[in-house]
Amino acid sequence: xxxxxxxxxxxxxxxxxxxxxxxxxxxxxxxxxxxxxxxxxxxxxxxxxxxxxxxxxxxxxxxxxxxxxxxxxxxxxxxxxxxxxxxxxxxxxxxxxxxxxxxxxxxxxxxxxxxxxxxxxxxxxxxxxxxxxxxxxxxxxxxxxxxxxxxxxxxxx
Length: 157
Hints:
alpha+beta, disordered C terminus, six-stranded antiparallel sheet, CD59
């Protein structure tokens, strides 16, 4: 017969392993893409704002350290969404908007609960609301200040 302390240690270790395995699985994520095309860009826009009802949306199982993501790319004035991807990948940074070298501002959203990337993929409305019609105040002051400086630079071109 095993000593009581050994049994307790084995039990605690098994609980730890179960927790590690469950956390390694990660979340289920939506996967779809949008690319502005045509005269109005309406084709495929349901991936952006009605993900669960978009005809080609799929659900994928995300494995840690990957998370559910949304990546949105805009024109130089951040007024038109040029492309948007929803899926599962290792995050490329924190959620928010950045203007990389070049002329395409990019916004990211990372999350790790089941189907959490179902939110509206036009992220500029969430993270830089004064550029769009959104009212969310979740963007950081640094992000807003940075985007304002970038847009001011573009408007002077």
